[in-house]
Amino acid sequence: MTNYDVIVIGSGPGGYVCAIRFAQLGQRVAIVERYDTLGGTCLNVGCIPSKALLDSSEHYHQAAHQFETHGITIEKLAVNMPQMIKRKNEVVEANVKGVDYLMKKNKIDVLIGHASFSSAKEITVKKADGSTSNFVADKIVIATGSKPTMPAVFNYDKKRVITSTEALNIDEVPKRMVVVGGGVIGLELGSVFARLGTEIIVVEYLDRILAGMDKDVSREMKKILKKIGFAFHLSHKVESVEPNSDGVTVSVVPREGGDSFNIEADYCLVSIGRQPYTKNLGLENTKVQLSDRGFIEVNDHLETAEPGVYAIGDVIGGAMLAHKAEDEGIYVAEFSTGQKPHIDYNLIPGVVYTWPEVASVGATEIELKEKGIKYKKGKFSYRALGRARASMDLDGFVKVLSHAESDEVLGVHIVGARAADMIQEATVIMEYRGSAEDIARICHPHPTFTEAIKEAALDVDGRAIHA
To answer: pTM for the whole thing?
Structure first.
């Protein structure tokens, strides 16, 4: 039996970052991964491969719809889907090898197999061949992540009824795809195929897409996505899904009642959320408690009811984001070794990697109204931005919400080119409790997309220059 200071279960962004930080702090660390490759959902079947395909499909879309305007002529433009998938796989492989390197560099032992608790301090790792080994640690971190939610009604067959995992390996351009769920994953993967010519039909139970984001963002993105081939059935629910050898029939009904109707498609992509992965972890051999929804319960320091056992990332709920898991992994490593880290969950940016991108941090208008917080807002359209006109990225806006009295920035919401990178300016300002006036007084280079943030901040007091 091998002893460690720390064992981390799961090698996704939360797990491997946590392991590295523990190692930097002088701890002897092992990380357990049930699959043959490190990196978890994010690197293997999530963030990284989906962004690779999003980039490839956007290049094609620009070549098909914008290059001629730029003075670039391409004859016989075509999609080579197998090559697109091949490049995506190469991107994944490079990132996974990077994590392997980081484990070696930081002298972290990698244990391949399924981990389960034998006791609060002892882990059993079962390999694919059925053999087992036991390991003991003073501290154990559960970073097992999540998996797609899949009710039985969808008849999930991994061929015609698929999740994001299978969607990443479709080697043809479908004529039509039904996307169940108008959230981040469905819109991102729907965008991949819409740009390549697929008709995307979104069925969403709620009355708007991206329901957790600002309402203006939802409206703007619906309008933009319609232009590239999306259709929407909002306030609708799926009654049944019937796959066959060459397609799928999706039965849909209005949420408030009415006649059902069928949609015929090549694929049905189910993206209605994710659930925590705690199966066969042996938690019954510990004091670890689960919530009613199956998430591991933790205190303010991410420690479970079992002293010395921590949990981070998707498995504890909250925003299911890689960067949130990473920050929690660092927090656990530092807190449990005597430091005093902090995480402000209000300041974890959310991003949707459509094109244009969507990015948001802080409160929405609805949230401020619900809390009775008086606020001011400023808004600036990309259409008035010189850099956006030069690149033909005219869709979108920046909205800044600030406190009515103190002018402290309470929320920033962006739809537009490079929003994913721009949002960090807002996050930094908000981390230091800066004001809209602070943003407005900072000199922004011209011409850039970030000028839209400055103009929106100026508009909080009605003094935008270029609006």
So the answer is: 0.96
Total domains in the chain come to: 3
Q: How far apart are CA 441 and CA 429, in angstroms?
A: 12
Instruction: Domain of residue 130: give its range.
Output: 2-147+275-343
Contact present, 446 and 386 (Cβ < 8 Å): yes
Q: Among residues 65, 70, 301, 446, which one is catalytic?
A: 446
User: For tokens 């406190």, what's the residue?
Assistant: 403
Q: Is 301 an active-site residue?
A: no
Q: Using the 8-state DSSP alphabet, how is residue 219 labeled?
A: H
Q: What is the pLDDT of residues 225-272, one digit of tens each?
A: 999 999 999 999 999 999 999 999 999 999 999 999 999 999 999 999
Helix (H) or strand (E) holding 233: strand 230-234
Nearest in space to 271 (alpha carbons), one of 146, 145, 150, 144:
150
Task: Supply 180's token pair.
Answer: 């169940």
Say which CATH number the domain at 223 has: 3.50.50.60
| Digit-coded pLDDT (tens) for 279-312 | 999 999 999 999 999 999 999 999 999 999 999 9
Q: Are 284 and 272 in contact (CB under 8 A)?
A: no
Q: Which residues contact 297 (CB under 8 A, 6 or more apart)?
A: 288, 289, 290, 291, 304, 305, 316
